Hints:
The chain is α+β, with helices and mostly antiparallel strands. The chain has a domain at about 40-65. It contains two helices and three strands; from the N terminus they run ββααβ. The protein has helices at about 20-35, 45-65, and strands spanning about 5-10, 15-20, 70. The longest helix has 19 residues, at about 45-65. The model has no long low-confidence stretch (mean pLDDT about 95).
Amino acid sequence: MLHDSKIEWPNGEGYTPCTKEYREINDKIDDLNDFGRISMDQMTPENYEKYNQLLDRQGQLHLFGHLGQSVRY
């Protein structure tokens, strides 16, 4: 599995390598919940459905090795 992208930690102290596909899913999740500022009960029904589908796909990718070992700066 090629970890050709990364997710920077919000505190700036490291990152987690991942595949581009995982990063794209993660970015879409962040967009839908505004980086955790919007809860699921505040989402429209359409966004709620999309959000849960993305979470499911993210979980599948995680199980199949799309995340690497985190690196602390």
